[in-house]
Amino acid sequence: MHHTPDGVDDRSAAPLTIAGRTASAALAAVAPGPDDTVLIGGAGGGVGVFAVQLARIAGAQVIGTGAAETADHLRGLGAEPVVYGEGLADRARALAPGGITAAVDLYRDGDGARRPGSASRTAVSAPSPHRSTA
């Protein structure tokens, strides 16, 4: 049991444990470290913001996908934001000239369905310049 921080009611605090543990489990699958560049899909979401912080604590460079309105927040957490939309894969590659060494896809739409066209991978090698992985 944990103490709920002052100013936060129990109903608001309860889901934080779930989001944090989900992010921790997702990152445990790829075990990021200082030599890694991690792509986090859905970095601006409830689980994603935890994943960004945990990957940064592990020393990894983080590229986070999200909506345009989350870009400043992601930068503040230490991620390089990449906005959803046409050219996402190319923009992500441009931020990782040495390749993306791990990826975690945390993006879901409002009803819990995976976004059409997204891949669910826990780790990927550096992307080929001739093949789109996003």
Concise overview:
With 134 residues, the chain is of the alpha/beta class. It has helices at 10-30, 48-57, 71-77, 88-95, and strands at 37-41, 61-66, 79-83, 102-105.
Keywords:
alpha/beta; 15% strand; 134 residues; Rossmann fold
Q: What sort of overall outline do the alpha carbons produce when their principal axes are compared?
A: globular
What is the gyration radius calculated from CA atoms?
15 Å
- Give the overall average pLDDT: 82
What is the name of the CATH topology?
Rossmann fold
Main β-sheet, spatial strand arrangement: 3-2-1-4
Strand content range: 5-15%
Ranges where pLDDT stays below 50 over 5 or more residues in a row are 115-134
Q: How does the major sheet shape up?
A: 4 strands, parallel
